[in-house]
Every structure is written in structure tokens, then in C-alpha cells.
Amino acid sequence: MTLSLVIPRLETSRLILRGPEQRDFEPLCAFLLDTDRAWGFGAEKNRGRAWRWFAMSIGHWALHGYGYFTMECRETGAPCGITGIWNPEGWPEPELGWVVYDGFEGRGIAFEGAERARRWAYEDLGMTTLTSNIVPGNDRSIALAERLGAHFERSYVNIEMGEDLLYRHPTPEALGYGADDDGSPEAYA
């Protein structure tokens, strides 16, 4: 049996957001096994568990029609992180999430990719709200959520991570999505 997924390809001035491919496993695995880097996302204990997360992420696309995109650098073709909409069983509602791999921090890639994924969720999927669920102490993710216009709404107990801070993103209307947008990749830079 072959499962065919329809995962859009989104672009920004510096990134391609695309569906996960087999070649994306190694950089994702390196991230997931790095407990210092992945603590706020959910580090894994071994390659087998990292592979299961990778496969689960692909399954999320099959079940929901959305999920995490691989962020690829347009210039080099290198996978540089993931971003997208995540809503597994037990989540309070769809979440906009992001991860940037080692060596790609400090370039605005997470912001650029997350902003483009959010626009897609609002304009193409018809979502009207999104959250970002952040482990307390993950100051970089909190700063990015706030840069994206999200505000702290409440704490809750995440079934995987324990206490989480729920940040609410602005509505599509508040962001002006759809107004005077020509759809060009430069609009997302």
C-alpha cells in the first residue's frame, strides 16, 4: 500500500516550506536527541523514538490535512528546521509551532517560516485562531511568539510537557490577511 499525501509547498524570500522527506530525518533526529536544544519541544531518548516522532509527524498530515513543514533554505536546499500546525490528541486546540536546527539560529528563519505557516492556516485552511504552547523558561520561543503578535492567555497542563504557557495569536482579520496581498514570496520576508 502506498499513502499519497497532498502537502503544499509554500515559499518565502529565503525559505521553502514543504512536506517531510526521508532525507529530513537525520537533521530532525540530531535536534530531537540534543536534550539541551530540544528540552522545550520534547527531546527523545534514542534514534528509534526520534524515528517514531518523524513518522507520527507524517501521520499527522494524513489525519488532519496539516502538520509540520520542513523548512528548507532556498539558497542551499538544506533543511533548517520545522514549522507548522500541530494538534495531536490531548492538545487544547491547533498550535503554531517551530524549531530551528543547530547552526541556523539568529537569522529570523523561525519567524519567517512560522509567519508563512500561520498565513497558510488562516487563508487556506480557514482557521480563525491559533495558539503557541510554550514550556515555562523557553524565553526564545516566548519572544518569538510575542514578535508574531501572540499574547499570553493562560497556563494549562500539557499531556506531554506538563505546565505549558498558551500564547494566543492575532486573528486573520487583525493581521490584515487577504487585504492587498499579491501572494508573492516577498510578501512573507
Fold topology:
Elements (H helix, E strand, L loop, with lengths): L9 E2 L3 E4 L6 H9 L1 H4 L8 H18 L3 E6 L5 E8 L8 E6 L8 H15 L7 E4 L4 H9 L3 E8 L3 E7 L3 H4 L14
Antiparallel strand pairs: 1-2, 2-3, 3-4, 4-5, 6-8, 7-8
Write up this protein.
By secondary structure, this protein is α+β, with helices and mostly antiparallel strands. It has a domain of 117 residues: Aminopeptidase, CATH 3.40.630. Helix content is 31%, strand content 24%. Strands 1-2-3-4-5 form a 5-stranded antiparallel β-sheet. It has a 3-stranded antiparallel β-sheet with strand order 6-8-7, with helices on one face. It is globular. The C terminus is likely disordered.
Keywords:
31% helix, 5-stranded antiparallel beta sheet, alpha+beta, 189 residues, 6 helices
**Spatial gap, N to C terminus:** 40 Å
The counted number of beta strands is 8
What structural class do helix, strand and pairing data support?
alpha+beta
Strand content: 15-25%
By CATH reckoning, the class of one domain would read Alpha Beta
Helix percentage? 25-40%
Radius of gyration: 16 Å
Mean pLDDT: 93
Series of H and E elements:
EEHHHEEEHEHEEH
CATH homology superfamily of one domain: Gcn5-related N-acetyltransferase (GNAT)
* Assembly state (oligomeric): single chain
